[in-house]
Amino acid sequence: MLGFLRRNRVLLTSALGLLVAAGLAVRTSREPARADGLGRFFLEVMAPLQRSTSAVRGTVTGSVQSMRELFQARDENARLRTALRRATDDLGRLTELELENTRLRGLLDFRETLHGDLLTARVIGRDATGLARTIVIGRG
């Protein structure tokens, strides 16, 4: 019998603890307030431990949430930087297109003031020395 108790002492201790807890639960379930001294003692002993455990859990949960939000903010920051770079490039292109559009509209207005047949050509070369004012156009 003593060998059985030694081999199963953890199981028997756990079972005894469960029986005491169940007995306390049944006994105190009929009473509106904590009237027994043993129950009050356990509550007084466990209350600081429960408060500290809750505080640690809240701190850890808050830290994990803060880290998650930090990583999300870093990813969002990278996405926003990429979007800003694209928008800046688009703005530069649009500005150049607007300037070209203004210049071409001016050329169209100039064309209406001239009489006769007009032929357009692209400038493909200039005088490299700067001594003469000559250009090469892309028409024969």
In short:
The chain has 140 residues and is mainly alpha-helical. It is 74% helix and 5% strand. The model has no long low-confidence stretch (mean pLDDT 86).
Could you name the ranges where pLDDT drops below 50 across 5 or more consecutive residues?
none
The major sheet is characterized as: 2 strands, antiparallel
Structural class: mainly alpha
Radius of gyration: 44 Å
Task: Describe the 3D structure.
It is built from three helices and two strands, in the order αααββ. By secondary structure, it is mostly helical. It has one domain. It has a two-stranded antiparallel sheet. The longest helix is centred in the middle third of the chain and has 77 residues. The mean pLDDT is 86.
Task: From the structure above, extract its key features.
single chain; 3 helices; 2 strands; rod-shaped; mainly alpha; 140 residues
Secondary-structure topology with pairs:
Layout (H helix, E strand, L loop, with lengths): L1 H6 L1 H21 L7 H77 L9 E4 L8 E3 L3
